[in-house]
What does this fold into?
Amino acid sequence: RIFGLAAGFKLFVLWHQYGCTADVVYYDHNRDALKIWKDIVDNWSGKDFPAFCAQRGYVDDFSKMQEVIDYFGGEDQLEQAWLNYQKTNPKFVRCDLLKDPEVIVNEMAPDGNLIWYSNCFKFYEGIRRYGLKGCEAKEKAFLEMVSKVTTCWIA
It folds into this structure.
């Protein structure tokens, strides 16, 4: 299983890099981010992402979209890969890793998991709530938890 934040195309690219067979789980503490990415996964055709977002009123920075297109070898290949990705029916889970990391850990397979957690433990909101040392302790505890299920992680 591949786990990651409901933000950008990182999970899609990871899914592709790891052979297009893994289950994908988007997580986020932000309900709106989950809702938007579920809509994107369910309804975007794989063509003209900026137009899709404009039609729905989603505001984004599309500066990295060309990198995604180039990674797949062009717009047609991106579209085909995206259509295959949609067939995997990614799951969407609300989870605040700093507060309730067990929510994601409980979703993990017994082994072979990959989790991208970006800057979750260094984000200003967490630092404001728990302090920098508290966030560092939470990250360490989280990594200890996930290491019990043979997990690879990307910060």
